[in-house]
Write a structure and sequence with these properties.
By secondary structure, this protein is mainly α. It has a domain at about 10-100. The protein contains six helices and two strands. The protein has helices at about 5-20, 45-50, 65-70, 75-85, 85-95, 105-120; strands spanning about 35-40, 60. A two-stranded antiparallel ribbon has the order 1-2. The longest helix has 19 residues, at about 105-120. It is globular. It starts with 5 loop residues before the first helix and ends in a 10-residue tail after the last helix.
């Protein structure tokens, strides 16, 4: 079987991270539940934080807040600092500056981990009945 390319794996990782983040269920800025999108504090071009859902570098925002923040990057940076706290923001900023070159095996491993996280988020809470 042919191994996937780095581009194919990056696209799959982007898609699964977006799905995981949007499952948070509401905009982390205004609490809207409509038109949710994944928004990166630091650009996706920085591989070290591109798929980081724990730091987090990726936020769940509605389309309106996402657009507002892209149009006002200083406001967005201030919101991220406030939302994360200065210490977590500084750690994220430091992490995004680290240059990382992923191999295909690295990307496959990361994809496997994120697929497991996505599956866990799809399961109903323990003890919940179907239809509840």
């Amino acid at each position: 079987m042919k191994r996937p390319s780095k581009t194919t794996l990056r696209n799959k990782l982007d898609k699964i991270v977006s799905e995981i983040v949007r499952k948070r269920g509401n905009c982390e800025k205004c609490k809207s539940k409509e038109n949710l999108q994944a928004c990166h504090a630091f650009s996706r071009k920085f591989n070290n934080t591109r798929w980081d859902i724990d730091a987090p570098n990726v936020f769940c925002l509605c389309a309106s807040c996402h657009r507002k923040f892209h149009d006002n990057p200083i406001m967005f940076t201030e919101w991220v600092k406030s939302y994360l706290g200065s210490e977590r923001y500084d750690l994220l900023k430091e992490a995004h500056n680290q240059i990382v070159k992923y191999t295909i095996d690295d990307l496959l491993t990361k994809l496997g981990v994120l697929e497991q996280i996505a599956r866990k988020k799809d399961k109903p809470p323990k003890g919940a009945k179907n239809g509840d």
